[in-house]
């Protein structure tokens, strides 16, 4: 044969219908998607007292919705409190529904070779916000949301693109827990109302 590598590439007897599986998956998508929710009612949006804080998940890859590309949650920050402090590779935007406060951001120096390394810069940047604003968090930025009011809660809507996670880059690291976090605690409507209550 004309190709010198033929002694190598002709080896192997395994057969797999990998391309056919892609065709089958595409053909089955309409029926599969009919089973997935397009409307999510408040009672179907799970609460979580997470290390990042008090969350009500609106869209998540684990919620069997039609949404393919975005995860979103509402975050409640009680009066005078703050979110957890974390970093993730995906960029994030947050809409401020209620309250006022500020974000603390630290950029990271990143190096991607055979491995992935990052180092937090010393400078902490502060960004003030209030109801109606949109907060932008750049990729790989250490960030935290702070409620500046001693008597009013903050409610934020967070949206993050899933593309990084789907590409195997779910680089999420919690650096500080929210003050409200208690492992294993289950949220109830009454408890959430307590967090919302103005002092």
Automatic annotation (TrEMBL):
- Name the UniProt key words of this record, in alphabetical order: Auxin signaling pathway, Receptor
Q: Where in the cell is it found?
A: Endoplasmic reticulum lumen
Q: What is its main location?
A: endoplasmic reticulum
InterPro entries reported for this sequence: Auxin-bd, RmlC-like_jellyroll, RmlC_Cupin_sf
* Name used for this protein in its record: Cupin domain-containing protein
């Amino acid at each position: 044969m004309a190709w010198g590598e033929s002694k190598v590439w002709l080896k192997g007897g395994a057969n797999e219908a990998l391309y056919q599986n892609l065709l089958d998956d595409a053909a089955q998508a309409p029926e599969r998607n009919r089973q997935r929710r397009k409307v999510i009612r408040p009672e179907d949006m799970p609460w979580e007292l997470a290390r990042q804080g008090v969350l009500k998940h609106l869209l998540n890859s684990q919620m069997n919705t039609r949404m393919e590309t975005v995860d979103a949650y509402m975050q409640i920050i009680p009066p005078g409190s703050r979110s957890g402090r974390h970093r993730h590779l995906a960029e994030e935007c947050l809409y401020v529904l209620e309250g006022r406060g500020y974000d603390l951001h630290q950029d990271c120096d990143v190096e991607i070779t055979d491995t992935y390394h990052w180092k937090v810069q010393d400078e902490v940047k502060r960004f003030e916000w209030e109801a109606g604003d949109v907060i932008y968090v750049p990729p790989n930025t250490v960030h935290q949301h702070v409620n500046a009011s001693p008597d009013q809660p903050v409610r934020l809507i967070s949206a993050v693109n899933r593309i990084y996670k789907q590409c195997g880059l779910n680089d999420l690291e919690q650096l500080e827990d929210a003050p409200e976090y208690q492992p294993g605690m289950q949220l109830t409507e009454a408890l959430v109302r307590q967090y919302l209550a103005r002092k």
